[in-house]
Design brief:
alpha/beta, Rossmann fold, eight-stranded mixed β-sheet, binds adenosine-5'-triphosphate, binds magnesium ion
Length: about 260
C-alpha cells in the first residue's frame, strides 16, 4: 500500500507575518522527527530557500520549470535540492511568469495535482508549501492543492483583523474553511499588553480554540538564524522547543489521518 502524503500550505494574504519562517521550521521539525518532507518555496522572494541557506546560485531548475515543462521524465528530480536529512527543497523562480502561465488555463483547480504528480512517487510524508502574500493565481492553485492550511498571524491589531480576509478568499474560491487546520500566533511579546490584547482578540475571532497553537515569541535569534541560513534547531534551543510543540500539533492535525 502506498504511503499517505499530506500537503499543508502555510498561507496568509498579509505580508511579513512569519509564513516563510514557520513553513521552514515546520518542515525541518518534521524532518528531524523522522518524517520525509518536501518544502516547496512558492514565493518569488525565495525566503524559505534563503532561510535554509540556499541562494539562486545553488539551483538551476525550479518550480517554474515544472509549470512550463511538458512532463519531462525526471524533471522533478532535477529541481530538488537535498536541504537537510529527510528534507528536500523545491525552489522557485519567475513567480510572475508562473502567474501569467496559470492565467491562461481555463481552470486551475487541478493544475498542481497534474504538475506535481511525480511528487507522489518520492515517498514524502509531508509537503509543506511556503506561499507568497496576497491573492494570486499561484495561491489559488496552492489553496486547491493543499489538504490543509496553516495560518501564521502576527500579534498586531491590523494582522488579527485581516484574518477575515483569508476566510473570504477561501469562500470566493468555493473552498471549505475547514481546510484551516492550524492558526499560529507569531511575534508574541510577553512584556507588552498590546501583544496580550491581540492574542485575546485572535482567540475571540477564531471560534474554534482547537485551531490555535501556542504563540511563538518575538525573538531576535529567530530572525538571526534565518539570515545565517540556519533553522533554530541548529541555532537556538529555546525557540527550537517552541517550534517542536507546533510540529507536534501539525502531526496530530494531519488532515488525511482524520476520519
Ligand atoms: N517570531 C519571530 N521573532 C522574530 N523575528 C521573526 C519572527 N517570525 C518572523 N520573524 C522575522 O520577520 C520577518 C518576516 O518573516 P517571514 O519572512 O517569515 O514572513 P512572511 O510572512 O513569509 O513574509 P512575506 O509575506 O514577505 O513572504 C523575517 O525577517 C523573519 O526573520
Ligand atoms: Mg515569506
Amino acid at each position: 500500500m502506498s504511503k499517505k502524503m499530506t500537503k499543508f500550505a502555510v498561507f496568509n494574504n498579509k505580508g511579513g507575518v512569519g509564513k516563510s519562517t514557520i513553513a521552514v521550521h515546520i518542515a525541518h521539525g518534521l524532518a528531524l522527527d523522522g518524517y520525509k518532507v518536501l518544502l516547496i518555496d512558492m514565493d518569488g522572494q525565495n525566503d524559505a530557500s534563503l532561510f535554509l541557506g540556499f541562494t539562486s546560485q545553488d539551483y538551476k531548475k525550479t518550480f517554474y520549470d515544472l509549470i512550463v515543462g511538458r512532463n519531462k521524465t525526471r524533471l522533478l528530480e532535477e529541481c530538488l535540492i537535498h536541504a537537510r536529512d529527510n528534507l528536500d527543497l523545491l525552489p522557485s523562480s519567475y513567480v510572475d511568469r508562473i502567474n501569467t502561465e496559470l492565467f491562461r488555463l481555463p481552470s486551475i483547480n487541478l493544475v498542481l495535482e497534474e504538475k506535481l504528480k511525480d511528487v507522489e512517487s518520492f515517498g514524502y510524508d509531508f509537503v509543506i508549501m511556503d506561499c507568497g502574500p496576497q491573492r494570486s493565481k499561484v495561491n489559488d492553485a496552492v489553496l486547491c492543492y493543499a489538504d490543509g492550511l496553516i495560518i501564521p498571524v502576527q500579534l498586531q491589531a491590523a494582522s488579527v483583523r485581516a484574518v477575515g480576509n483569508i476566510y473570504e478568499y477561501l469562500s470566493d474560491m468555493r473552498l471549505n474553511t475547514d481546510r484551516i487546520k492550524l492558526i499560529v500566533p507569531n511575534m508574541f511579546d510577553q512584556r507588552t499588553n498590546d501583544s496580550k490584547e491581540n492574542l485575546a482578540l485572535l482567540k475571540e475571532f477564531v471560534s474554534n480554540d482547537h485551531l490555535l497553537t501556542e504563540p511563538i515569541p518575538r525573538r531576535v535569534k529567530i530572525a538571526e538564524a534565518g539570515k545565517l541560513g540556519k533553522t533554530v534547531f541548529e541555532y537556538d534551543d529555546e525557540s527550537a522547543q517552541q517550534f517542536l510543540s507546533i510540529v507536534k500539533k501539525v502531526i496530530s492535525r494531519n488532515a488525511r489521518e482524520e476520519p
